[in-house]
Amino acid sequence: MTARLELKSVTKLFPSGDGVSGIDFTIRAGEIHALVGLNGAGKSTLMRLMLGMKRPDSGEVLIEGVPLQSLDPRRWSRVGHLIEYPFAYGELSVRQNLVLAARLRGMETARARQVAADIITGLALQKFAERRVADLSLGNRQRVGLAAALQHAPDLVILDEPTNALDPSGMIVLRDTLLARAAAGAAILVSSHHLDEIARIADRITVINAGRIIGSLEPGQAEIERAFFSLVSADAEAA
Amino acid sequence: MNALVTALGVEWSKFRHARFGQLATLGIILVTAVISPLMNMGDASTLSAGDWARYFDLTAGTVATGGLFGFGLVAVWLFAREFADGTIAGLFGLPVRLSTVALAKLVMFVLWASATTLAMTLALVLAGLPFGRGPFGPEATMALGRLVAVSLLTAWLTLPFALVASLSRDYLGPIGAILLAVIVSSVLADGGLGGWVPFAAPGYWAAAGGSADPTATILQVSGSLVLGLICAALTLRAWRRLEI
């Protein structure tokens, strides 16, 4: 499978000493790659580096072989992401927010309206479509954020804790959507604390600890949480 | 250019649906127009204005100070809200660059301030009509032009607060900067610098009315324009280099 996104020896350290160092990482077309780690392990930093929200101290981030700093801006129209907060403005309705997000991905207004309508159905948001986002529950705001990240059929998807605040039905809808997108050829990276949920959909699971990649887990393996903590504990003892 | 048009459309959509934007616009227009009756109270008010020219110059003085808050809060909101609401992360990784988003915010702010100034001026004229201020001669026309210019210059002078909002990434820093600018400018201006203090220049121009020294006024206004321009450029630079 082709590497749609690749990190080569990427290091980003903050004055506090936290950060990530020497990271080699790939997200391939047609697969769901999960990134797991404890709080503060460096998952969010890594994802921010992939999206240009942070610049590496050293190393390279490449999308289809092109370094981010040289990337044609139009390439970003095929990337979808949700990092930390849903991209949704409280004063706008769900539909208005989605049209706005699609417009920012370069779509004409008519096309933006169409993809917004499609994702509203796809993620079961019909009931809330005309409500202001400020009036929605946290879980439904998260759904709006996911809709904004996925509506334009991106071929590279980066989601930080996408199941945050989702109810069980939301988690099922998200799982089915991600599996369908990966089957259609999208490269997907998700981070999550829900190892069981990850194990159900991921093709690869990479473990990060203290800013370094320390190993991987088999999606189908039994006792995945125990295996995760064994890896992390062994790393902490070795450090 | 397409990216800027898209970003402008997005900014306008956010602004026109936001209660804050609606209230700020109405506030600037109506509060100013409400001053009109106060200017007809004769000796009972220090704001009394017997003719159109004095009426516009007095209003310009009010706008020069109040506008730093009115226009300034909108400039702050446009930039700080992306950080406060957490939407800034969604503005990365787009075909529309961050600096283009920031430019769209600046352009939208200037267009909004211009439209609000025109609406305020119209409201002011309408509010002044019933009180019989005599003929609307050339002096009144000049004063009206001065009022529009003072209002636009005051709005332009709030661009440094957009820069502070972009750097501090919150509301408190730039709101503190507005207060600081008003207080320090007043002290320095009263201390003898007068209209040479950029934030005080519009107020001194308004206070002098038609009797201002043209050369000094042009230099002072130019200083204010340059300050706003530098801060606009620095705001774009801050967004181009932004990391979160």
Explain this structure:
Chain A: Residues 5-235 form the ABC transporter domain. Chain A: Belongs to the ABC transporter superfamily. Chain A: This is ABC transporter ATP-binding protein. Chain A: InterPro entries: AAA+_ATPase, ABC_transporter-like_ATP-bd, ABC_transporter-like_CS, P-loop_NTPase. Chain A: GO terms for molecular function: ATP binding; ATP hydrolysis activity. The complex is a heterodimer of chains A (239) and B (244). With 239 residues, chain A is an alpha/beta fold. Chain A has a domain at 76-154: Helicase, Ruva Protein, domain 3, CATH 1.10.8. Chain A has helices at residues 43-50, 94-104, 109-122, 138-150, 168-183, 195-201, 224-238; strands at 3-13, 19-28, 32-36, 58-63, 66-67, 79-82, 156-160, 187-191, 204-209, 212-217. In chain A, strands 6-7-8-3-9-10 form a six-stranded mixed beta sheet, sandwiched between helices. A four-stranded antiparallel beta sheet of chain A has the order 2-1-4-5, with helices on one face. In chain A, helix 2 packs across helix 3 and helix 2 (94-104) packs parallel to helix 4 (138-150). With 244 residues, chain B is an all-alpha fold. Chain B has one domain (2-240). In chain B, helix 6 packs across helix 7. The mean pLDDT of chain B is 92. The A-B interface holds A 48, 51-55, 73-77, 79, 81-92, 96, 100-101, 103-106, 145, 148 and B 3, 6-7, 9-10, 13-14, 17-19, 85-87, 89-97, 243-244.
